Automatic annotation (TrEMBL):
Pfam families: ABC_tran, BCA_ABC_TP_C
Residue span, ABC transporter domain: 14-258
GO function term, MF aspect, one: ATP binding
Name of the molecule in the record: ATP-binding cassette domain-containing protein
Alphabetic keyword roster: ATP-binding, Nucleotide-binding, Transport
One GO cellular component term: plasma membrane
InterPro entries: AAA+_ATPase, ABC_AA/LPS_Transport, ABC_transporter-like_ATP-bd, BCA_ABC_TP_C, P-loop_NTPase
The species this protein was found in: Arthrobacter yangruifuii
Amino acid sequence: MQELHTDQSEPPGLRLDGITVRFGGLTALDAVSLDIPAGRIVGIMGPNGAGKTTLFNVICGVFPPTAGNLQLDGHGFTPKPHRLTRSGVARTLQGLGLFPGLTVLQNVTAGLAADTRRGLDLLALPGAVARENRLAARAMDALESLGVAGYAAALPDTLPYGICKKVALARALVSEPRLLLLDEPAGGLGHDDIEELAGIIRTVPSDGCSVILVEHHVDLVMEVCDRVAVLDFGRLIAEGTPAHIGADPAVADAYLGVEVA
Ligand SMILES: Nc1ncnc2c1ncn2[C@@H]1O[C@H](COP(=O)(O)OP(=O)(O)OP(=O)(O)O)[C@@H](O)[C@H]1O
């Protein structure tokens, strides 16, 4: 079994134990074991088809692993896509995934959907209205923390891509997750926006949230991650600090000569 070794004294966060996923005859993940301790940022790298998205999909319960199991904060974890927020898990998507017909504020409030009780809200009872107001206030706080509260009333289509990326991140952070999955957050961003994003990502673990960063921008991974795991054809071929990974010839081979440091 392939292990990601971590300091056993660290708070547990997410633990993947021997995760295997097979699609028919194809093994997309092959007995991957990986610890993402609370308060740490772990990067997942690997060439196209290595199994990164499949790993995220297993963590989000999109499909169950063929073998292996997950733990979150020291307890067995069977993720369900419709209960992710309640489980303390939030995810950003490749691209934006924002609702075009909703304002920025409404998009971020949607990140609290698991906390709403739609039936009551539709009745517009005083308690439900107060609750809606509380959710909107939390969404505004999330937007403010990323410096984009001024766009709350705008529709995403009218905004620059970099702003929309921050809105998508605010939607993930508004539920104050225990585990944040970032799926190529730097995709489509220019150099300055990526630098700003790096600063934002570094602040996320301060309250104990674990972060998994899947990203093709190797520089960003190396800059913000505490540890990096590298997948190739579904196998965990390397793990360690960014410096260790940057110097690993097996990683350079997996990337077919692409420089990694
Ligand atoms: N639902 C599916 N059914 C069948 N095969 C799948 C499915 N999802 C992924 N695969 C296959 O599993 C392997 C891993 O794919 P995955 O999308 O996880 O890789 P990736 O590392 O995310 O790649 P990329 O960087 O291109 O997004 C690939 O060979 C892919 O074709």
